[in-house]
């Protein structure tokens, strides 16, 4: 597993130029058969909070919140943020 995730090089080709080789510091190889399983393990216990619909897809996360007062939404989002940090 360590070799699967560790010391993977990449470079970027843009408008005819090739970047220097760098090391990927996070994530799994794109298109790998193991990536969906690892993603499921990572997000299995993602916290749920009232009034917030968490939306997870690939490497994106959105947390739209709705509430009846101006202060309710930021308070709800802060609770989610605190839970994630724990």
From TrEMBL:
Residue ranges of domain Reverse transcriptase in the record: 5-85
Name of the protein in its database record: Reverse transcriptase domain-containing protein
Species whose genome carries this gene: Araneus ventricosus (Orbweaver spider)
Domain of life: Eukaryota
Species lineage: Eukaryota, Metazoa, Ecdysozoa, Arthropoda, Chelicerata
Pfam families the record matches: RVT_1
């Amino acid at each position: 597993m360590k070799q699967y995730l560790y010391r993977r090089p990449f470079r970027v080709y843009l408008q005819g130029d090739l970047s220097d080789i760098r090391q990927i510091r996070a994530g799994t190889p794109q298109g790998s058969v193991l990536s969906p399983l690892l993603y499921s393990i990572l997000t299995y216990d993602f916290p749920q909070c009232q009034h917030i619909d968490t939306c997870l897809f690939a490497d994106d996360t959105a947390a739209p919140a709705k509430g009846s007062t101006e202060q309710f939404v930021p308070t709800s989002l802060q609770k989610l943020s605190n839970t994630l940090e724990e």
